[in-house]
Amino acid sequence: MIDTSTNTVLGTTSVGGQPLEIVLSPDGTRAYVSQNFSLSGPSDKVSVLDTTTSPPTIVTQAITPPGFPDGIAITPDGNYLYTANSNNTISQFNATSPFASIATAIAAGGGPPVLPSAQRTLSVCNRWKRNNVSMYAITAGTGVLAANGTIASGSGPTYPAICYNGNALLAAGLTFVANTAGAIGCTGVNPTFTGGTLKINGTGINVTQSFTLDTGGGTIDTNGNNAAFSGCSSEPRVSPKPARAL
Questions:
Q1: DSSP classification of residue 240
Q2: pLDDT number for residue 77
Q3: What residues contact residue 201 under an 8 Å CB cut-off, 6+ apart?
Q4: Taking residues 154-183, what's their average pLDDT?
């Protein structure tokens, strides 16, 4: 544990294996550590630590993905946890007690490792050596992943991180590029334009979400593509009413 305000080490916790990646629960009270190997052989587990103690104490090591967990991600509500395993699978768990599996591991293809980022409505997993990114929708209420297609990328993509900043993706000076309608879910349930641009980068995209225009307005760049917007646009009720435009 490190105090980031002073860069001082406050304490250490032994998890009994080789820790690879750490993800924190949204409230910061839990740390989830993926472990690949121990000195005596593969450990294949995730340690859950209580970060309210100093040093952090182990809550459980009952999360045991099949096949060397590498990447790890948690949903914004803190309910579901995903590990990307070196045997080209993604495991799915409850992030709270009893930390049980919520579905069987799914094949992700490509070579090891597969590294997910679970934020907002999508979990994105890179396929190393396949040069593309696999996308998964997170089913509301269950956390179960559903395949949502792939997109091409540069050579050997690793460590993705998208769908994290929500509405900030539509802020002034920023352009959010949407290759699919599902990708727009990264901007949240009710995306708010604060001066940014939404660029449509695929044909036939049907956007059902409603958008809110803040004082900075916003821009939708269809980029020469056909797109349908069936949601509604609204403005905050303030007085006097500021100028805004879409």
A1: S
A2: 82
A3: 177, 178, 179, 223, 225
A4: 67
Number of H helices, E strands in the chain: 0, 22
Cβ neighbour number for residue 73 with a 10 Å cutoff: 24
Whole-structure pTM over 0.85, yes or no? Answer: no
Structure tokens at 237: 């009720």
Rounded Cα–Cα distance for residues 231 and 168 (Å): 20
Q: For 84, which DSSP code?
A: E
* Cβ 61 vs Cβ 111: under 8 Å: no
Burial class (CB in 10 A: 0-12, 13-18, 19+), 44: buried
Query: What stretches of 19-170 adopt beta strand conformation (E)?
Result: 19-24, 30-38, 41-50, 57-63, 69-74, 80-85, 89-94, 101-107, 111-119, 122-128, 132-138, 145-152
Give the whole-angstrom CA distance, residue 109 versus residue 214. 42
Whether residue 180 contacts residue 162, with contact meaning beta carbons closer than 8 Å, is answered with no
pLDDT at 31 over 70: yes
Does 48 score more than 90 pLDDT?
yes
| Pairing mode, strands 41-50 and 57-63 | antiparallel
pLDDT higher at 27 or 147: 27
Phi and psi for 231 in degrees, rounded to 5? -80, 180
Pair 150, 134: CB distance under 8 Å:
yes
Question: Between 163 and 104, where is the model more confident?
Answer: 104
Please compute the mean of the pLDDT values over residues 11-18 and round it to a whole number. 85
Q: How far is CA 147 from CA 134, 138, 213, in A?
A: 8, 9, 31
